[in-house]
Each structure stands twice: as C-alpha cells, then as structure tokens.
Amino acid sequence: MIKHEPSYKFLVFGAGPRICIGKRMALTQMKLVASIIIQNYHIEPIEGHHHGYDLSMVLHMKNGFKVKMHRSKY
Ligand code: HEM
C-alpha cells in the first residue's frame, strides 16, 4: 500500500508555492527502480547493523542501510 504523507511532514520536495514540480516524475522513477530491484533481487538486512534517520533536509540514513543482495532465481 502506498502511504500518503503531507508535504509539510515529508519535506524532501519542499512545500507550499515553491514545491518541486518534478515531484511526481521523481517518485514515479523511484517506484520503477524500486520495483525492478525488488523483482530481481532477494534483499536481506545485515543483522546487528544499526540504522536510523540522520535529521537533515533530505533525510539521510544515519549509518546507511547495509544489506546482502542475491539475484532472484526464476
Ligand atoms: C529526487 C528528486 C528531486 C528532489 C529531491 C527535488 C527537490 C526539490 C526541492 C526541495 C525544490 C524546492 C526548492 C526551493 O524551495 O527553492 C524543488 C524545486 C523544483 N524542482 Fe525538484 N526535486 C527533484 C526532482 C525534480 C525533477 C525530476 C524535476 C523536473 C523534471 C524537478 C524540477 C523542479 C523545479 C522546476 C523546481 C522549481 C519549482 C519552483 O520554484 O516553482 N525536480 N525540487
């Protein structure tokens, strides 16, 4: 399910009159790339790796998100 977050809460594309006009295009591209990766790879988070938010304008991940990726078998 796709969860909607108000622009003033999820600020990466800005909000108000200066909101990014490429937001929908960028989100469509991200969904496309994510769906291709999820379809083709099995993704397993590394156990014990601590991840979380690093507060900034673009919401970096604090320590990245380390995973093991294996190509899915068909
Ligand atoms: C991950 C991708 C993107 C991010 C994080 C992003 C982020 C932003 C942000 C934060 C602003 C507001 C800047 C401000 O308040 O001064 C902005 C404005 C803008 N963005 Fe994006 N953007 C992205 C992709 C795109 C794409 C793909 C396009 C065009 C196809 C685009 C076109 C624009 C334009 C024209 C503005 C100026 C809007 C205005 O001031 O009226 N952006 N973007």
The small-molecule ligands in this entry are: protoporphyrin IX containing FE
Which structural class do the helices and strands define?
alpha+beta
Helix content: 10-25%
Strand order of the largest sheet: 1-4
Task: Report strand %.
Answer: 15-25%
Return the string of H and E elements. HEEEE
Kindly report the average pLDDT value.
Answer: 90
What are the segments in which pLDDT stays under 50 over at least 5 consecutive residues? none
Cα shape: flat
> Could you describe the largest sheet, including whether it forms a barrel?
2 strands, antiparallel
Rg from alpha-carbon coordinates = 15 Å
Number of helices: 1
Number of strands: 4
Distance between the termini: 25 Å
At a glance:
This protein is of the alpha+beta class and 74 residues long. Helix content is 24%, strand content 19%.
Q: What descriptive keywords fit this protein?
A:
alpha+beta
Describe this structure in words.
- The protein is an alpha+beta fold.
- It has one domain (15-71).
- The chain has one helix spanning 23-40; strands at 41-45, 53-54, 60-61, 67-71.
- Strands 1-4 form a two-stranded antiparallel ribbon. A two-stranded antiparallel ribbon has the order 2-3.
- A hairpin with a 5-residue loop joins strand 2 and strand 3 (60-61).
- The longest helix has 18 residues, at 23-40.
- The model has no long low-confidence stretch (mean pLDDT 90).
- Bound molecules: protoporphyrin IX containing FE (HEM).
- The site of protoporphyrin IX containing FE has 9 residues, from helix 1.
